[in-house]
Request: fold
Amino acid sequence: MTGGDKSQSSSGKSKGDDQDSPFGIWLSRGLHQLFDDVASEPIPEELLKLIEEDRKK
Amino acid sequence: MTFHDQVIAILPKLRVQALSLTRNRAAAEDLVQDAVCNALAAQNSFIPGTNFSAWMHRILRNRFISDLRKRRETTDIDDVPASTFASPATHEDRLALKDLSLALSRLPADQREALVMVVIQGMSYEALAEATDCAVGTAKSRVFRARRQLEAWMTGDMPSNDKLRVKVKALRDAIDVRHRAGQSADDLLFS
Reply:
C-alpha cells in the first residue's frame, strides 16, 4: 500500500503547531480516548465476507 | 499486497474517518460498508502504485457527502444528537470527554474529519489534502480552525459547562507552573 499518511513533511506535529501546547496534548489524549477503540474493534464478519467474495470473482 | 488486502488493511482507518464524519457508531459502520462496496465496484479505476489510502478515504468521504445530501431532504445531520461518540472513559475524565465529544459535534464535519485524521491517524497535511480532495493550505486551515474552536469552547466560550472550563483552566495553570519550573507535567495529563 502506498499510504500517503506516512509522510511527516508537513504533519500536524510540525514545529509551530500547537499540538504540543497543554491544550493540544489534552485534546490529543481526549481524541485518542474517543476514537482508538473504534479502530481496534474487530472487523464485522459480514464485511470481511463481502470483500472475500469479491476477491474470488 | 493485492487490492483486496489493501481494502482489509485500511478498514480500521476508514472506521475512524467514518465516525469523525457521522458522529454515530452505527452510521459509521454502515458508511464503511457502503464505501467498501463502492470501492469494490470501482476497483478497476484504481491505478496500482498510486496512493490507495487517499483513494479509499476519498471514496468514503464522497459517499458520506452523497448520503448527507439525500438525508438533508428530510433531516439535518447537525441536529443528530452527539451522544454516540461512545467511550469507556474513566472516572474524572468522563465529564471532560463527554464535553469534548459535544464540542466535536459542534464543529463542521470537514474540520472534525481533518483534526481526527491528523491527530489519530498521524496523517501529514499533504496526505490529508489528497484524502479529502482539497489544497494543502485548506487541510492545514481546517485542522487549525478545529483546534482553535475547540480550545475556545473548552476553555472559555462554553457557558453551558462552567465546571469544565474551570477544570481545564486549573489543569492548564498547573501545567504552566510545572513547565516554568522545568518539571514534567505528565502525571497531570495522564493520571
In short: Residues 19-57 of chain A form one domain. DSSP finds two helices and no strands in chain A.
